[in-house]
Amino acid sequence: xxxxxxxxxxxxxxxxxxxxxxxxxxxxxxxxxxxxxxxxxxxxxxxxxxxxxxxxxxxxxxxxxxxxxxxxxxxxxxxxxxxxxxxxxxxxxxxxxxxxxxxxxxxxxxxxxxxxxxxxxxxxxxxxxxxxxxxxxxxxxxxxxxxxxxxxxxxxxxxxxxxxxxxxxxxxxxxxxxx
Length: 179
Known about the structure:
44% of the residues lie in helices and 26% in strands. The protein is α+β, with helices and mostly antiparallel strands. The two termini are 23 Å apart.
């Protein structure tokens, strides 16, 4: 399902429906969605520095989805450099774990020869699939609510759940800005 985006006045108080952004049940908890921007880049003789600013807003979720929604937001709170390192390390760990587990299973079953042939031929595909999954996680594809853009006077929020979006836009009708 795609995100439906809505542009709001950045400095007005946002009102949220009292339902979970993922499933529509009664919401008793909140999760955060964040957006990190690079504010300043400094160039020195051998070092480059980055200054980041992170914006976060809390939205309602049920008990069942609280932990998963906060985990989905973790990459959005990171800087670009740490996110790139996270993607590379996580991809390598997933690839190594898969490589080890498949090798172990094929060796235990007695297919050591097939194990080496199989692993030599599919290692690149496993790395690619792992990389794509980690990138989708890092890009926030699975988040129910995300901040898409922030400028001087507005904020663009994307919402996946259509019913939640309808309730949200009704509550914030006076804060919606035209493009």
